[in-house]
Specification:
The chain is α/β, with parallel strands linked by helices. Strand 2 and strand 3 form a beta hairpin. The structure holds ligand PBG and zinc ion. Zinc ion binds next to loops. Ligand PBG binds next to helix 6.
Length: 324
């Protein structure tokens, strides 16, 4: 009988020893929690496609934000659902719109929590695209002006960080320029740098009412087949002034997260998107997987791949579980 001399199992013999050699440890400070802001007061409506997440009016969002902060989660990412949509998406930059109000109220209720605002047009445009539509096509350069105005309105409301998710060329530079010109040089930019045209956004589009009314987003979001192109997009966003770069979605793109982490010095964020969340919640509801274990395993995998920041709908549960 042959006896191994090297026994990796020795380091797995007890939880104490496993803890000593554990390479990746999750903490609440790793997470960012998304919030969906709707018009009105005292609104808290469950989102069927994202169980455990809600449409919140800005007053309730401020109260929720305090609970998020108490769990040790450092930031929320706010998405707005406007009162009206038009061809240009003008409600995106209207002062005192739901998301601008929520930013101000969250900062007021909980100054220690960082507020990151998603900057895009798709919730606000009648056609549901992330940029300006001209002759049936998405016009890059007009979109830049609208996106920069939107980012400025979020900064003016008190956002600590703006997060453009539109994938137009040059938007980070356009936003940086306008923010700096108006005295918001301390507001950071977290760019959705490598954002893929993904089927995993389904539940989000339902929750944010942001599905495109014609066509799809493949003329601006990236082809899932490409990773060298992701490095090009990330490099451009960094040149334009992005402080944090994001890869989105996370799970089908762990290799991209790793490559971005190894190629650049900026902090890397990964978005564990709505479809990834919904699949786990559905399987857990069916009793086919253990939710707590699968969530922590999934988030650990995203962190191990190189993410410094994980945006996730599991944030509240995960923060409680890692705090136990
Ligand atoms: C829109 C936006 C999307 C998400 C965040 N911002 C969807 C899309 O591009 O259609 C997806 C988030 C998720 O699925 O959780 N700019
Ligand atoms: Zn969009």
């Amino acid at each position: 009988m042959s006896k191994p001399t090297i026994r990796p199992r020795r380091l797995r013999t007890s939880e104490a020893i496993r803890a000593m050699v554990r390479e990746t440890v999750l903490a609440p400070a790793d997470f960012v929690y998304p919030l969906f802001i709707v018009p009105g007061e005292k609104v808290k409506e469950a989102l069927p496609a994202l169980p455990g997440n809600y449409h919140l009016s800005s007053d309730i969002a401020a109260a929720e934000a305090r609970a998020v902060h108490e769990l040790g989660i450092p930031a929320v990412l706010v998405f707005g659902l406007p009162e009206y949509k038009d061809e240009h998406g003008s409600s995106a930059w209207a002062p005192n719109s739901p998301v601008q109000q929520a930013i101000a109220r969250i900062k007021d209720a909980c100054p220690g929590l960082a507020v990151i605002s998603d900057v895009c047009l798709c919730q606000y445009t009648s056609h549901g695209h992330c940029g300006h539509v001209k002759n049936g096509r998405i016009d890059n350069d007009t979109s830049l002006e609208y996106l920069a105005r939107t980012a400025l309105s979020h900064a003016a409301a008190g956002a600590d960080m703006v997060a453009p998710s539109d994938m137009m060329d040059g938007r980070v530079a356009a936003i940086r320029r306008l923010l700096d010109a108006d005295g918001y040089q301390d507001v950071s930019i977290m760019s959705y740098a490598a954002k893929y045209a993904s089927a995993y956004y389904g539940p989000f589009r339902d929750a944010a009412r942001s599905a495109p009314r014609f066509g799809d987003r493949r003329s601006y979001q990236m082809d899932p087949a490409n990773s060298r192109e992701a490095l090009k997009e990330v490099a451009l966003d960094i040149e334009e002034g992005a402080d944090i770069v994001m890869v989105k979605p996370a799970l089908a793109y762990l290799d991209v997260i790793r490559q971005v982490k190894d190629s650049f010095r900026q902090p890397v964020a990964a978005y564990n998107v709505s479809g990834e969340y919904a699949m786990i919640k559905a399987a857990a509801a069916g009793g086919w997987v253990d939710e707590r274990h699968i969530v922590l395993e999934t988030l650990t995998g995203i962190k191990r791949a190189g993410a410094d920041i994980i945006i996730t709908y599991h944030a509240l549960d995960a923060a409680r579980w890692v705090n136990l």
